């Protein structure tokens, strides 16, 4: 037992010594990026999948748990693969050219996005839409910083909020099929289910009656 403990400590010291080697930093960063992508993907998907599944999906408790687990796995796997691919390609380009330039980041992420997130499925679609909204904000701020567009005299956020809500409700009411399914479900719950009730039970307590009355 003591020999086993000593062997483990020796192995741990060797692993820690390896992690301190600067020559392996790029390769180790790729591996840790894979780890962080997997963990973050599971953490970020878990609460969303939990809420959306139990609010809007039908089926048994076991089926709902399976659906949540599948969504967590898909998000975790894809993010882990993407970080691994991105950091690996970034390190390869830097090594080939002897330095890192801004285009390396775009190219590595472009290839990773194509390979990992190119499949048009609900998980990837949600991730891309999330990123797209952040990109638009970021590009707008960058354009102001670089002087490509003038600094607004007033905060443009109220107008943006009005345009976003006006557009999304117009699409929901008249072109619903263009919206992502989970958004359709959320809006149906908020704006259509609130139009229907039979008594106090499905007016205040439940969204819909489950009996046959």
TrEMBL record:
One of its GO terms (cellular component) is peroxisomal membrane. It comes from the Eukaryota. It comes from Nesospiza acunhae. The gene is Pxmp4. Pfam families: Tim17 (PF02466). This is PXMP4 protein. PANTHER family: PEROXISOMAL MEMBRANE PROTEIN 4.
């Amino acid at each position: 037992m003591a020999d086993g403990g000593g062997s483990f400590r020796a192995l741990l010291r060797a692993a820690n010594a390896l992690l301190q080697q600067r020559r392996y930093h790029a390769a180790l960063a790729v591996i840790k990026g894979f780890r962080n992508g997997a963990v973050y993907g599971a953490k970020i998907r878990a609460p969303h999948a939990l809420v959306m599944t139990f609010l809007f999906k039908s089926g048994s408790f076991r089926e709902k748990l399976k659906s949540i687990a599948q969504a967590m796995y898909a998000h975790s796997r894809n993010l882990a693969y993407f970080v691994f691919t991105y950091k690996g390609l970034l390190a390869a380009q830097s090594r080939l050219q002897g330095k890192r330039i801004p285009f390396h980041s775009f190219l590595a992420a472009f290839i990773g996005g194509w390979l990992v997130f190119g499949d048009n499925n609900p998980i990837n679609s949600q991730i891309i839409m999330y990123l797209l909204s952040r990109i638009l904000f970021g590009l707008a701020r960058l354009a102001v910083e670089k002087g490509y567009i003038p600094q607004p005299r007033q905060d443009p956020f109220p107008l943006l909020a009005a345009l976003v809500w006006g557009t999304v409700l117009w699409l929901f009411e008249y072109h619903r099929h263009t919206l992502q399914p989970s958004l359709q479900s959320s809006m149906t719950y908020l704006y259509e289910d609130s139009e229907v009730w039979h008594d106090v039970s499905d007016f205040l307590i439940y969204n819909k009656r489950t009996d046959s009355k």
